[in-house]
Amino acid sequence: MHFIQAGRIAGSDWLNFIFPPLCIVCDMPADHPGDWVCKGCMDQLEMIETPVRSGLKSAGDLDEVRAAFVYNDAVRAIVHHLKYSRATRLAVPLAKYMSVLLRDLPEWMNMDCLAPVPLHPVKRRERGYNQSEAIAKALSAETGIAFEPDMLFRKKYTVSQTQMESAAERQKNMREAFSLNPKKEIPGKRIILTDDVVTTGSTANACAQILKQAGASVVYLLTIAHPVLDDG
């Protein structure tokens, strides 16, 4: 038994030696087995240490919005793999970085739960998972904040927000897109919504509206990334 296990480890090391793991951003060999991004690409990640304000034209029901990284080319590649390549394992290292933002923020660490922005059932079946749920689950493990995967449902299959330029279009697209899980106790709850990228904030804000109407006292949004826009 021990011999077989040792052989497996040796075989894995040998494969890593012959076929070193590749960085998901640049496709060059990673620095160490198990690394998902090489050091050169990691150095391109720009953390955002202050609340996000730029470009949030549709976020009136969100009490605060934070993102871990500037949405640059390196982060775009990481998010793409998380969303479309079944690379849910990326949620774990991403959550470690995202939790760094929260540890110095007592009001965030004292929130009641983490709730992912939901996918429509059709889209979830096509993809096989919800990347926002993977983020929330990994963040819960890092921070100890309760994980609530089914607080909201997406009842309307919407066109991708990335295809819409104006905030008005995005708001209209999100109108009546979400519903509340009637089994959940919402009054007085302090909730952190999780998502991959925030631009105008319209999707998360539609969720926040429903939660606030149901009695939530505070709704924050935490995402992997946000494009830093010129307010001028």
What's the average pLDDT?
84
**DSSP summary: helix tally:** 9
Q: Nearest-angstrom radius of gyration?
A: 19 Å
Tell me the overall shape.
globular
What features would you describe in this structure?
The chain is an alpha/beta fold and 232 residues long. The chain contains nine helices and seven strands; from the N terminus they run ααβαααβααββαββαβ. It has helices at 2-18, 39-42, 73-84, 91-103, 106-109, 121-127, 131-143, 167-174, 202-213, and strands at 64-70, 113-116, 146-147, 152-154, 178-180, 190-197, 218-226. α9 links the parallel β6 (190-197) and β7.
Record keyword descriptors for this entry.
232 residues; alpha/beta; five-stranded parallel sheet; two-stranded antiparallel sheet; 9 helices; 39% helix; disordered N terminus
Any chance you could write out the topology, listing elements then pairs?
Layout: H1 2-18, H2 39-42, E1 64-70, H3 73-84, H4 91-103, H5 106-109, E2 113-116, H6 121-127, H7 131-143, E3 146-147, E4 152-154, H8 167-174, E5 178-180, E6 190-197, H9 202-213, E7 218-226
Parallel strand pairs: 1-7, 2-3, 2-6, 6-7
Antiparallel strand pairs: 4-5
Helix pairs in contact: 4-7
